[in-house]
Request: fold
Amino acid sequence: DAKTTQPTSMDCAEGRAANLPCNHSTISGNEYVYWYRQIHSQGPQYIIHGLKNNETNEMASLIITEDRKSSTLILPHATLRDTAVYYCIALNAGNNRKLIWGLGTSLAVNP
Amino acid sequence: KAGVTQTPRYLIKTRGQQVTLSCSPISGHRSVSWYQQTPGQGLQFLFEYFSETQRNKGNFPGRFSGRQFSNSRSEMNVSTLELGDSALYLCASSLEAANTEAFFGQGTRLTVV
Reply:
């Protein structure tokens, strides 16, 4: 699985968009980009995933660059409840469920 | 629909003991994965079970083992506990074994003293 690199921490004002970058320059063609978040004292929560097209759901949008070497998770209107650690991971599309997790980005949404 | 249930939530053991943690996946999910989370290392993959078979294994010593039952419930066991085994142990269930979102439980907080 490809390694991903994320900033250690970020701040965002409540109500503004939070843009969380992720670098995955060694990603292979059959690896998906997944985003999860972990709120303190809870298990990680799935947010969104994509292969090469941009994706949007009720939680967030995922923008993947054309060369697939990086992506950005966008929380359009961040709230205090979005304060969490956000993980970007690359997952092989085959039967390999092994996930390599980094330390993620700690996002603080400030009032 | 009930989520992933892990028991117990908290556990304190002494060095040298063994421990068994339990995970009940979401109904209908056949894949269960286990992770260890420590502050400095983040989440580390332990192993994955699908239809009672171990499909993948992480880089952990043989003291860490697991199994999955026919109802998809899974257990992991750690023998001869060490202080460094203190961590949050997370279980995740998925519908299939590949490329589907994983649903995590709240975890079991193990403290080894």
Summary: The interface with chain A takes residues 4, 31, 33, 35, 42-45, 48, 50, 55-56, 58, 90, 92, 94, 97-99, 101-107 of chain B (CB under 8 Å). The mean pLDDT of chain B is 92. The longest strand of chain B covers residues 42-50.
